[in-house]
Design a protein that fits this description.
It comes from Acetobacter cerevisiae. The chain contains one helix and no strands. The protein is mostly helical and about 110 residues long.
């Protein structure tokens, strides 16, 4: 009789231990699933950050290219302006020389005469 009581107590203890273990096992599976979800979210966030940085890098490259193009256009416009100015000066000189000789030869003597 005492033996049966001890066996029954042991059986109940084993059942309780199995229930506890089953609960722990369930919680462990939940924890693993949660850890997996967290890991996936972190990976998505890392990928989004990588894409954001790549986009920012491309934007900066385009900005630098735009600056270079604008600078080259400015230089080209400046050169063109200088060329036009030189042409105007040449025309002006040639007109002055041809007009000056035909109208007043004393202009060719220079200042002080």
């Amino acid at each position: 009789r005492e033996r049966n009581r001890v066996l029954e107590t042991a059986r109940k203890a084993v059942e309780k231990a199995q229930e506890l273990f089953s609960g722990l096992e369930k919680r462990a599976r939940q924890a693993v699933g949660l850890a997996r979800k967290i890991g996936q979210r972190m990976e998505r966030e890392r990928e989004a950050e990588r894409q954001r940085q790549e986009l920012a890098r491309q934007v900066e490259i385009r900005r630098q290219q735009d600056i270079r193009v604008a600078e080259e256009a400015r230089k080209a416009a400046e050169l063109e302006s200088q060329k036009q100015h030189q042409q105007v000066l040449k025309r002006s000189r040639s007109r002055t020389l041809s007009r000056g000789r035909s109208r007043d030869p004393s202009d060719d003597l220079g200042p002080g005469f």
